[in-house]
Write a structure and sequence with these properties.
There is one protein chain. The chain has about 70 residues and is mainly α. Helix content is about 35%, strand content about 0%. The radius of gyration is 32 Å and the shape is rod-shaped.
């Protein structure tokens, strides 16, 4: 009969705990930041259009003209 014990080695327990911690961290980050992130299939928003320049602005009333 083999001399195997059903007890998990410490390294395997540490590996599973680390793996579980990474999963919990990923879930926490998803619920913290994921609500504001656009879906991957969404089209990106258009860049803002700068206002059109109509030339120099006239002086305000009461200001001397150059």
């Amino acid at each position: 009969m083999s001399d195997e014990s059903p007890v998990l080695p410490t390294s395997r327990i540490a590996r599973w705990l680390t793996f579980g911690a990474f999963i919990l961290l990923a879930v926490a980050l998803y619920f913290r930041e994921g609500r504001r992130v656009a879906p991957l299939t969404a089209t990106p928003p258009a860049p803002p259009v700068p206002p059109a320049s109509t030339g120099p602005t006239p002086p305000a009333p009461g200001e001397p003209t150059p």
